[in-house]
Specification:
The complex is a heterotrimer of chains A (313), B (289) and C (314).
Chain A lengths: L3 H4 L12 H42 L5 H37 L2 H6 L5 H47 L6 H16 L3 H27 L3 H15 L2 H9 L5 H13 L9 H5 L6 H26 L5
Helix pairs in contact in A: 2-3, 2-5, 3-5, 3-7, 3-8, 5-6, 5-7, 5-12, 7-8, 7-12, 9-10
Chain B lengths: L2 H30 L17 H8 L3 H17 L3 H14 L4 H21 L6 H25 L4 H11 L11 H15 L2 H12 L4 H20 L9 H13 L26 H8 L4
Helix pairs in contact in B: 3-4, 4-5, 5-6, 5-7, 7-8, 8-9, 9-10, 10-11
Chain C lengths: L2 H8 L9 E12 L2 E16 L4 E5 L6 H8 L7 E6 L2 E2 L9 E4 L11 H11 L4 H14 L15 H12 L6 E5 L7 H16 L3 E6 L2 H7 L2 E6 L2 E7 H5 L14 H13 L15 H8 L21
Parallel strand pairs in C: 3-8, 3-9, 6-7, 7-8
Antiparallel strand pairs in C: 1-2, 1-4, 4-5, 9-10
Helix pairs in contact in C: 3-4, 3-5
The chains are: A mainly alpha (313), B mainly alpha (289), C alpha/beta (314).
Chain lengths: 313, 289, 314
């Protein structure tokens, strides 16, 4: 430490601090940036490289199936990986943050600054979402590149053969059908919509995990319960439809309505199967899903604040 | 529990109630748009392995189907036809709207399995071979019929079925001209590809009813005029069109002056192949092969 | 209008707000499995910290020191009572603009460097971008971590973490500093430096509220002390008043000859009401000895408490 008498500065006037919305943004973004850095520096990106390698290997490894199966399989596996990693990042990332801050007493130093608990939660959530989004973007780049290469490899010979025969002939029709199928299953806007649907799942999942971590007793609890909710969320639509169908059975109806009310419907965001099959996903529908995800996120963050507001740390 | 936490519980429940109709509507729309599969029939539960069942109820149907598809391909390579058959039953149950699965499953049964027992299974007694050939033929058609009932607007499945029942090819499994014509016609209606309409016409030209022959004649004449009008196409009018019109003109006693000009030549090699196929066309030009 | 101006206008006597005002603070931690019962951590505590004062709260482990601090900082909700910081209810977030807090055994984000840590807290306080770098540099210099500023906190020693903790607590130039065991686990050299820093901050007019169970250090730095036991304040007052032994006097001599000492003894003996309690060589402190032996005490000023060794006992 420097010589104490030399380091003494004259009494300073209070600092010129930000106010209003810039202050709120500054705090939230500082926490978000810090959360993002914290998660990234957990070496999580090593998983991304492993994923990329697996993708590239898997993509070219399954050879002697028909082109449709090859492309669809590649997309199914890729979407599956992306969903898996997004689920892990969203749940584990959110689950780690608040309990760790409490355990390390880092939370004290943050909440002792003029930071509201809502700003703290929002900053944490945005940090996790930034990680989920960027990871997904990285995976999408690798996936799209590999898919494009696969598509061109398959399309090339078909187009060449198609050019050599009249369009109206049996062969011409067959090649045209094949080319259309390859393009439908290849890299196009719907492929990216499938990736976006995975991001929406991750966003809702992260908000739900953040909510759990505000009252959870441990990280393990949050991760376990979060995964269970994620799985049940895929069956929530069955419970909902059972309840709405007016079927018999008091206990069954009670159970189904509880499941329908409490658990999120993750199946609603599941468009990756359709994207893998090359189905056309309407922009209007996608916008509705984005809106629904946004509402989920807002509600879960609001509820997390209500739970966390009076939590004694 | 303090007030804020009670409020939190209330918000969760109210939000749940508010989103019920929204998610119901969205779910229905996604099934109608073909973006999600309808709920799997619970009666199918016994035929699915545990993981398959969970995947079917959950969101991994496409991935599960792809993995089973890979397994089915391995079964094909190993000539395990009954395993292949079972797997395609699972696959089509998981993703009933993927017409390629119905097509491929039927192809394995109608061509590969049947072909194996017909030409390669020398170690089996003939009675068993005959029984299996019949079994897989029936199974293939059942699968394709179910696929068409599930996906009535799939041009590929209509074309595929027509391919197995047409009277024009030596490779068809069961000849049924009227059935073939119907499926070719439906494929044309769905895709607008005129080749399918001509195929329907070729089939109906061979049917005994005058109505069929008249329809075939008018259809093929229309196509003939289109081909004839194309000055830039060196190939001109396909031989199949010209020949079939000629047969129909005879059958319908069309006046000579109204008949199309015919090029006289012997029956070309390649007869029995699907008209307008590359091999057919090549053999028309070069009978020596 | 300030409270002082208000009192001048109205003619009523009101004092300027104190740095910390705690009134009738009680905190009961409920036991979830025993409805209606709980652990009484703080029991009806009143406590004031004047502007510019250094207040030390001392007590054994589990006496409620940290709970009082957390209640003041809004980390726990009082069961009853009020807490104010410069006149503002401390449960309001805005009251924390003027507070810097160093928790006991602080851990910060290990993935950040020292400089990143200070900058992070600067952002939380709303420092403008142009001030963040400058203030970070200034504080790292102040706490002696300028060279270690680019290293991640994962590689910091306990003393270094404590110093970074001080830096973040001071980042927005708070008027009140709350220190929970600021020298716990720190070596004597580091401990002295923290003590000196506290003196300097006091000279700048910063109010300091600290708790510790290192009594000697509290004695050195604090103006006022409160002793807490089982959640209650049992003694409180100015340090000098509290530690004076009223019926005894102390005289320290340097280079006194044996004859002079005998004269003094004779004088005392002549006074019937006065008793000679002890005459002999005063003791230095182990801390002073340590600092001299390790060469870290070159800048230490000798004070009434820091005596060099001498040889002749009485």
């Amino acid at each position: 430490m420097s010589n104490s008498s030399a380091a003494v500065s004259q009494p300073e006037p209070s600092m010129d601090l930000k106010k209003g919305l810039p202050l709120v943004l500054s705090k939230v973004l500082a926490i978000a940036r810090n959360t993002f850095t914290q998660l990234v520096r957990m070496k999580v990106f090593y998983f991304l490289f492993a994923f990329s390698l697996i993708l590239l290997v898997a993509g070219f490894f399954f050879a002697d199936t028909q082109f449709e199966q090859k492309l669809k399989f590649f997309k199914d596996i890729s979407y599956g990986f992306m969903l898996l990693f997004t689920t892990i990042f969203a749940i584990v990332g959110s689950a780690l943050l608040i309990p760790r801050d409490i355990e390390d007493r880092t939370l004290y130093t943050i909440l002792c600054k003029p930071v509201t608990r809502f700003e703290y939660l929002l900053g944490k959530y945005l940090g996790v979402i930034a990680l989920v989004g960027l990871s997904l973007l990285f995976m999408d780049l690798i996936f799209s590149g590999a898919l494009y290469v696969q598509e061109q490899r398959l399309l090339g010979p078909v187009l060449e053969a198609q050019a050599a025969v009249p369009a109206e002939s049996a062969a011409g029709v067959q090649y045209a059908t094949e080319a259309d199928s390859i393009r439908k299953l290849g890299l196009n806007a719907n492929t990216q919509k499938g990736v976006l649907s995975i991001f929406l799942t991750g966003a809702v999942l992260a908000a739900m995990a953040m909510l759990l971590s505000t009252f959870a007793t441990s990280t393990m609890f949050t991760v376990t319960v979060g995964l269970c909710i994620f799985i049940v969320g895929y069956f929530q639509s069955l419970a909902r439809e059972y309840f709405l169908s007016g079927s018999e059975g008091t206990w069954q109806k009670l159970l189904s309505v509880l499941v329908a009310l409490i658990f999120p419907d993750f199946k609603a965001f599941h468009l990756s199967d359709a994207a893998a099959s090359g189905e056309l996903i309407a922009n209007g529908l996608l916008l509705q899903l984005v809106g629904l995800a946004l509402v989920y996120v807002v509600i879960y963050n609001l509820v997390a604040y209500l739970v966390f507001a009076d939590k004694e740390v | 529990m303090n007030r804020k936490r009670l409020l939190a519980v209330a918000v969760i429940l109210l939000f749940g109630a508010a989103r019920l109709p929204v998610e119901h509507h969205l779910g229905k729309r996604m099934i109608d748009d073909g973006l999600q599969e309808p709920p799997i029939e619970l009666g199918f539960r016994e035929r699915l392995p545990q993981i398959g069942f969970m995947a079917a109820l959950g969101g991994l149907r496409s991935l599960a189907a792809s993995i089973f598809d890979l397994k089915a391909h391995i079964a094909f390579e190993n000539n395990e036809w009954f395993a292949n058959e079972q797997l395609y039953d699972l696959i089509t149950a998981l993703q009933p709207r993927r017409d390629s699965y119905w097509e491929t499953g039927a192809w394995h049964r109608l061509r590969n399995a049947s072909g194996h027992y017909r030409y390669r299974a020398d170690d089996l007694p003939q009675s068993i071979r005959d029984r299996n050939i019949a079994y897989f033929s029936d199974s293939g058609f059942e699968l394709l019929d179910l696929g068409l009932r599930t996906n009535p607007d799939s041009a590929d499945l209509h074309a595929s079925m027509a391919g197995y029942v047409n009277t024009l090819s030596v490779h068809s499994v069961r000849k049924d001209g009227r059935k073939a014509a119907g499926h070719y016609q439906r494929a044309f209606e769905l895709t607008g590809r005129e080749f399918y309409e001509r195929m329907a016409a070729y089939e109906r030209a061979k049917l005994p009813d005058l109505e069929d022959k008249t329809w075939a004649y008018e259809t093929l004449l229309r196509h003939y005029r289109v081909f004839a009008a194309r000055k830039d196409d060196r190939r001109g009018v396909p031989l199949s069109v010209r020949r079939t019109i000629g047969d129909l003109e005879n059958a319908l006693a069309i006046p000579l002056l109204k008949r199309i000009p015919q090029q006289q030549q012997a029956a070309p090699p390649g007869a029995g192949l699907v008209p307008e196929s590359p091999t057919y066309e090549r053999l028309q030009k070069n009978p020596a092969g | 209008m300030s409270q002082a101006e208000s009192s001048a206008t109205t003619g009523t006597v009101t004092s300027a707000p104190k740095a910390v005002e705690i009134r009738s603070l009680t905190k009961v931690f409920p036991l979830p499995w025993k409805k209606g019962k709980g652990v009484l951590a703080v029991d009806d505590v009143d406590l004031d910290v004047g502007v510019g004062d250094v207040y030390g709260l001392i007590g054994p482990n589990g006496s409620g020191k940290s709970t009082i601090m957390k209640a003041l900082l809004g980390l726990v909700n009082p069961t009853s009572g009020t807490t104010r910081i410069f006149g503002q209810d401390s449960t309001e977030v805005t009251s924390r603009r003027d507070v810097g807090y160093l928790p006991e055994n602080p851990y910060f984000y290990k993935h950040l460097t020292g400089a990143e840590t200070v900058r992070f807290y600067a952002q939380l306080c709303g420092l403008k971008r142009r001030d963040q770098s400058e203030r970070t540099e200034e504080l790292l210099e102040l706490v002696g971590l300028k060279d270690a500023g680019s290293r991640r906190l994962a590689g910091y020693s306990k003393g270094m973490l404590q110093r970074i903790g001080l830096a973040q607590a001071l980042v927005q130039r708070p008027r009140l500093l709350v220190l929970d065991e600021p020298t716990a686990g720190v070596d004597p050299v580091g401990s002295r430096r923290i003590r000196d820093l506290i003196f300097n901050l006091k000279k700048q007019g910063i109010s300091i509220f600290l708790c510790s169970h290192l009594l000697e250090q509290v004695q050195q730095v604090c103006d006022r002390v409160g002793i807490i036991h089982r959640g209650r304040i049992v003694r409180e007052g100015a340090i000098e008043d509290l530690i004076s032994i009223e019926d005894q006097s102390e005289v320290l001599l340097r280079n006194a000859s044996p004859e002079l000492l005998e004269s003094i003894k004779a004088l005392v003996a002549a006074e019937s009401a006065t008793e000679l309690v002890r005459i002999g060589n005063p003791k230095t402190t182990l801390e002073h000895l340590f600092l001299k032996a390790t060469g870290s005490g070159r800048d230490v000023e000798e004070s009434a408490e820091d005596l060099s060794e001498s040889s002749d006992p009485s």
